[in-house]
Amino acid sequence: MTAIHPHQRTATTPRPAAAPVDYVWAVARIALGWTFLWAFLDKTFGLGYATPAAKAWLNGGSPTTGFLKGAVDNALGGFFAALAGQAWVDWLFMTGLLGIGLALGLGVGTRVAAVTGGLLLVLMWAAALPLATNPFLDEHLVYAVVLAGLALARAGETLGLGGYVRQPYLK
Q: Which residue, of 52, 140, 149, 160, is most buried by count of CB atoms within 10 Å of its CB?
């Protein structure tokens, strides 16, 4: 029997027992999933952390207006400020937060969540340019890199439901 290097596994190759690094990636996946899910919950219900109850999505508030209107003086501010408060942008943003948060939390669709979450984070990074505290790097790009690592490490298979899914794009 030929040993298979971890990076040579295919969708049908059985995964070996989880190594300690797999648990680190799994915890990072769950933590980042909670970050997205919490943003969805706070913006939907106005739990008083980043979103006061009066500005909750369920109370008629726009989950994108504050951040995008705040970008008006930034390098790409005109583009992003024009998107602020539009219903389709609010729905796309909130659906993205919920879907990415659930996918990462459950460990199913981790690859899809990594791509869509990475795109969302890069757009949020672009809206903030130029950055106030660093010439290039902020948490949005760091999280995007972590999402790529989660997908490449097949992090949904440890402490998640990804190991039970046959379709490679849903792992």
A: 160
Determine the residue type at 101: G
pLDDT tens per residue across span 125-154: 999 999 989 999 999 999 999 999 999 999
Between CA 63 and CA 32 the distance in angstroms is: 19
Sequence-distant (6+) residues with CB within 8 A of 125 are 138, 140, 141, 144
Instruction: Please state, in angstroms and as integers, the Cα–Cα distance from residue 16 to each residue in 5, 21, 98, 107, 153, following that order.
Output: 10, 13, 31, 17, 13
Q: Which two tokens stand for residue 90?
A: 């609010």
- For the question of whether the overall pTM of this predicted structure is more than 0.85, the answer is yes
Inter-residue contact 99 to 43 (CB < 8 Å):
no
Identity (one letter) of the amino acid at 156?
Answer: G
CA pair distance 148, 126, nearest whole angstrom: 18
User: Of all helices (H) and strands (E), which one includes residue 164?
Assistant: none
Contact 159, 30 (CB under 8 A): yes
